[in-house]
Amino acid sequence: MSELIRLEHIVKSFDDTVVLNGIDLSVAENEFVTLLGPSGCGKTTTLRIIGGFEKPDEGRVYFDGKDITDLPANQRHLNTVFQNYALFPHMSVGENIAFGLRVKNKSEQYIKDKIKYALKLVNLDGFENRKIDQMSGGQQQRIAMARAIVNEPRVLLLDEPLGALDLKLRQEMQYELVRLKKELGITFLYITHDQEEALTMSDKVVVMNEGYIQQEGTPEQIYDEPVNAFVADFIGDSNILPGQMVDEKVVRINGIDYPCIDGTEQGFPPRRKVDVVIRPEDIDIMPYGQGQFNGTIISKLFIGVHYEMLVQSENGKVEWLLQNYDQHEVGEKIGMKVDPENIQIMHKPKSEAESAMEIDI
Amino acid sequence: MIAKKRFAAPFIVWIIAGTVIPLASIAYYGFSSRDGGFTFSNITAMFQHDHMQALGLSLLLAVISTIICLLLAFPMAMVLRDSKYGKQGFLIFVIILPMWMNFLLRTMAWQVLLERQGVINGLLAAVGLPRQEMMNTPGAIVLGMVYDFLPFMILPIYNTVSKIDNHLIEAAYDLGASKAMTFAKVVLPLSVPGIVSGITMVFIPALTTFVISNMLGGGKINLIGNIIEQEFTVNSNWYLGSGLSLVMMVFIILSMVLLQKFDKTGGANLI
Amino acid sequence: MKKTLGNIYVLIILLFLYMPILTLIVLSFNDAKSMSVWTGFSLHWYQELFQSRLMMGAVVNTFSIAILAALIATVIGTMGVLGMAAMKQRQENVLMGLNNIPMLNADIVTGIALMLFFLMVRWPRGYMSILFAHTVFCIPYVILSVKPRLNKNTDKLFEAALDLGASERYAFRKIVLPELRPGIMSGFLLSFTMSVDDFIITYFTRGAGINTISTLIYSEVKIGIRPSLFALSTIVFVVALVVLITVNLRQSRQDRAAA
Fold first, then answer.
1. Looking at the partner chain, which of C24, C27, C113 has a beta carbon nearest the beta carbon of B23?
2. C163/chain A closest Cα distance in angstroms
3. CATH code at A110?
């Protein structure tokens, strides 16, 4: 896949607050890339710089190999689906969609056909004469999509487009977005603070915090191999614990040694202090005394498919979060075991830049 | 960004020429003597007996009219709040309508009613009662002020009380408050912003008026507004007029500061 | 019980508000000049009013000044709002503070301040000085009506238009202006009514020989009330009634259309 967008060392501050701290990012043609992070992490500013609504203090923006850093927004070959949609309230649905085409002086017939095509694409056939305020939130979201895609952009920028919708609608729209992307065959650059959205839709997820990119990778990589405690904590529920390498591929947590699959080769030599992440679903429950460590169940919640339990370990008095399909009672004493490949070893933050990556929620 | 700073250029010119320089010139004349020297005498002139009397009377009449307006307006606003939807719109309309009539004509109407040969005395005479001297009294001036400014008190108070969520009142009842208690502890504190803007809109024009006192006081009762107006139009003593205006402005600013404080404390010292 | 009491109260207040106006209306049709004796129906006070060249001149002045002042204030005020949006918060606060002065200040102070200004810069007092003074006190109302319409949302819509390829000028005309329009309209109407209604500031900034309706009424009342003023009151009242009813009807029709 060829590269379509490249950010080179983007720095941006507002009133002495540094929002972006040297962002480097590459987006390939036809990729679905998601910028994921908590509010204030700089993801929206990154998008606005690509869209042309902000100028970076430092760094360059390349589009299809050309430097577009100084190109105004209205001359860039990309379109944005805005947060809260920014639909023009005084225009009908059709006029909203036609806006970009009218600007480009397309023929009325062309515009008419395009509106029809776009509304069909977003499943809103025949709504062109409705007023914006007669449409529901979900419908407005689709209109915002239609308004952007009729301009045939090579990249669609989506700024938390599902943020204002309720849960069920949001899940429906996720499928819808993936379908649209396939049909249009264009690049999507998506922004969200919702990890589930990021993991279900993207080809590539870019986790951001405090103006730094924390990790880039496929959803699987991000989930299974978080590089630091921030990413681990932000993506899904997890047990994050301090530990120390005691031997080649052996990590000690709370006085118990666990075999793992990371060693000197991966940058974790013996004696190195590390952070360890273990996903709650990766802890297996065994009869008492038969696992690697023991504990007492202190609370239990049924959350649909599985149970979520808090277990107080006997050693170190640590509370572990577990997810399990089987029913266990509060107060029950159990044994637990973790497979070596489910123990994710991570570097502790050391430099100043990295300390921004510390858990901070 | 939609905007460019230079769009504000004419606005800034207007502010400088229409507000800043004119106010500065009042200050300049207020502190100058006729020969151009610096002096405080235009300011201290306020202490002269007839000026003090006019200022005192102005303050007194303005306070009285403001209180009467407030007492009349609050129940009106509450009734409006509780009345049915369509009727509410109609009542607001009926209150706004007189505001659209030139206030000189409205003041003149009271002259017509109160004069010695006026309507009320005509009616009194018709039933055999003696004619009354109602014009040219402080009472007539207060009546005119209340009449002219009452809608300006009703509307802002109505605006705030109509926005008080009924649930708050129900919550107060639910928590065992009596009607009087609910009014004192919930409704009244929440309507403070409306009361404050109502008072501003009545007190300041009442304090500074010269028209109402001229028309209903027959030129015999001098308020501070009349004194200042005469310095400018009759005596052409802009220096003295400016000095007295500065002192009057101090009273306006003082009253606004007091009201602001009152607004910020949420009327905590009201009860 | 409480309801009846409330209704009676409303009735008393309305009687207080309307009795003087109704008195004027009745007297305007009275044949005699008397304010206390009814001598028969007549329209000759209306005739006198319409034949008064002084009054007709004042009417022309009042409305032409009001229209011009409202127009100028609307343009300058709207541009001012746009300009302030580009400024730093502190600069904007200073301008807004100054902008509020004519609204909060007593009219008599604004009036004499402007009078002194005209004297100082040797601007002859007459039609133009009244017009300028009226724009000064109208602009704050325009600013206050337009400013709330220009917010984050307007910014977003403007950006959306640019995103779709519109030039700044096109985006302003097609998107921002329609968003501001209700504020601009109400600013204009507010300015117009404030200008028509003003007496005090006009009184200090006019020269000899020029009158608006307000100043003419004032000088005539000083000489002695003539029933032709009752006729004027009736006309003003009826015009206000008609205008307000039309505005209200249009408003409620729009509300119903929106619902």
1. C113
2. 5
3. 3.40.50.300
Whether C175 contacts chain A with CB within 8 A:
yes
CB contact under 8 A, C116 and B75: no
* C-alpha span between A74 and A52 (Å, rounded): 8
CB spacing of C101 vs B79 below 8 angstroms:
no
CATH 3.40.190.10 fits C54-224, yes or no: no
End-to-end Cα distance, chain B:
48
Q: Identify all chain A residues contacting C157, using CB atoms and an 8 Å cutoff.
A: 86, 88-89
Of the residues B1, B12, B15, B236, the best mutation for testing chain C's interface (the one with the most C CB atoms within 10 Å of its CB) is: B15
A-chain residues within 8 Å CB-CB of C160? 80, 82, 86-88
Is A73 within 8 Å of C159 when comparing Cβ atoms? Answer: yes
**Does residue A315 share a domain with residue A218?**
no
Strand order in the sheet with A204-209: A78-81, A155-159, A187-192, A32-36, A204-209, A212-217
Interface test with A, best of C164, C170, C172 (most A CBs within 10 A): C164
Tell me, yes or no, whether A92 and A129 share the same domain: yes
Q: Which residue shows structure tokens 């952070």? A: A275
- Tell me, yes or no, whether A312 and A258 share the same domain: yes
Tell me: pLDDT of C83 over 90.
yes
Residues C86-96 have pLDDT tens digits of 898 999 999 99
DSSP symbols for C8-70: HHHHHHHHHHHHHHHHHHHHHTBSSS-SS----B--HHHHHHHH-HHHHHHHHHHHHHHHHHH
Q: How far apart are CA B225 and CA B166, in angstroms?
A: 43
Query: CA of A91: which chain C residue's CA is closest?
Result: C175
Domain final position from A166, A193, A224 = A224
Name the domain boundary from A180, A199, A224: A224
Q: How far apart are the first and last CA of chain C?
A: 35
Whether A81 is in a domain gets the answer yes
What token pair was written down for C171?
């985006």
Please give the structure tokens belonging to residue B207. Answer: 């304090």
pTM of the predicted structure, to 2 decimals: 0.82
Q: Would you kindly state where each structural domain of chain C is located, as residue ranges?
A: 54-224
pLDDT digits (tens, 9 = 90+) for B126-135: 888 888 888 8
Mean pLDDT, residues C69-88 taken together: 94
- What are the tens digits of pLDDT across the range A83-130? 889 999 999 999 999 999 999 999 999 999 999 999 999 999 999 899
Among partner residues B5, B18, B225, which is closest to C83 by beta-carbon distance? Answer: B5
Residue of chain C whose Cα is closest to the Cα of B26: C113
Considering the domain B46-264 in this protein, what is its CATH number?
1.10.3720.10
Query: How many CB atoms are located within 10 Å of the residue C63 CB?
Result: 15
- Two tokens at A116? 């029809």
Chains that touch A (3 or more CB pairs under 8 A): C
Partners of residue C249 in chain B, C-beta under 8 Å: none
Helix (H, G, I), strand (E, B) or coil at C71: helix
Cα distance from C20 to chain B (closest Cα, Å)? 5
The residues near A201 (Cβ < 8 Å, ≥ 6 apart) are A32, A34, A174, A177, A178, A190
User: Could you write out the DSSP letters of every residue in B234-259?
Assistant: TS--HHHHHHHHHHHHHHHHHHHHHH
Residue of C nearest to A99 (CA): C164
Q: Is C164 on the interface with A (CB under 8 A)?
A: yes
Q: What is the residue type of A158? A: L
Please answer yes or no on whether B117 and C172 come within 8 Å at the CB atom.
no
Give me the amino acid identity at C148: P
List Cβ neighbours of C53 (8 Å cut-off, separation of 6 or more): none
Q: Between chains, do C160 and A86 touch, taking CB under 8 Å as contact? A: yes
Residue C125 in tokens? 């007092």
Query: Minimal Cα distance from C153: which residue of A?
Result: A86
How many whole angstroms separate alpha carbon C183 and alpha carbon C77?
11
Residue A350 domain flag: yes
Q: How confident is the model at residue A339 (pLDDT cuts 50, 70, 90)?
A: very high
